[in-house]
Amino acid sequence: MRNDRLFGVGVALVTPFKEDGAVDYAALEKLLEHIISGGVHYIVISGTTGEPPTLTVQEKEDVRNFIVKKVAGRVPLVLGIGGNCTNLVAAEVSVINTKGIDSILSISPYYTKPNQRGIYEHFAAVAEASPLPIILYNVPGRTSRNMEPDTIIRLANDFKNIVAVKEASGNMSQIMSIMERKPDDFMVISGDDALTVPMMSVGVSGVISVAANVAPKQCVQMVNAAAKGDFKTASRIHYQLLDLMGALFEDGSPAGAKAALNMLGICSETLRLPLVPVCDAVRAKIKAALDKATKA
Fold first, then answer.
1. Taking the domains of the chain in order of start, what are their residue ranges?
2. Active-site residue numbers?
3. What digits encode the pLDDT tens for the residues 151-191?
4. Which CATH superfamily is domain 8-221 in?
5. Does the predicted TM-score (pTM) go above 0.90?
């Protein structure tokens, strides 16, 4: 069954921490209300932006359960589950508590650098084990291996519960190849804030966004305008946000997003090693970009 709830702006949610490194649930609730009131269409839990490699299994479960409870069905929830051991990923998705969770976002295997046949077989095993729809996540800048269009299209055709791909290759030729050849009910989602409007001009359905943690209202206005074919408005907002989109990644993500959220009074800048806060020069850039992005 195809998932039609992935249109628009999904937020790759950060995990707020207290100064001592513990999960800050009060700040997490404040962040959830900030983005939901900003009109976001869905939320991604335990994506890369949420620092899941630094959370224990129990912390991940506690954070997920807290979000499910606080969101209370107001927007769909997507849960990140991925890794480079196929058996472990398939086992995890097979026993997942599906309460409150609409879909799974699963990154292409990293570090081991499998070939395209290996990537296909990995996701075939995950799809066969999963009780929920799956969004493929292609981000070769982090995994060191691109998931090529042929592989994505083959998976989309072979598995009805593989419903979308988050495309963060940055390769517009690749994105257009996927759009041209994909099944009609298979969705392509931008994984790059700065490319969302160009990607939507060729039919992409929206974005899983880091910037929407910080400026949800503006990101939603941009994507809604593009979806209506109003690229004049979408482009105007895109350029209003562009400096922020760049600054948030200049000294590491989610360090940039947490710096901006701290400026908004939502959470601290605390990260878990090996991630560290942004430098003072980048913090100043984020402040200027945030002022520009959120001006009336």
1. 8-221
2. 137, 166
3. 999 999 999 999 999 999 999 999 999 999 999 999 999 99
4. Aldolase class I (3.20.20.70)
5. yes
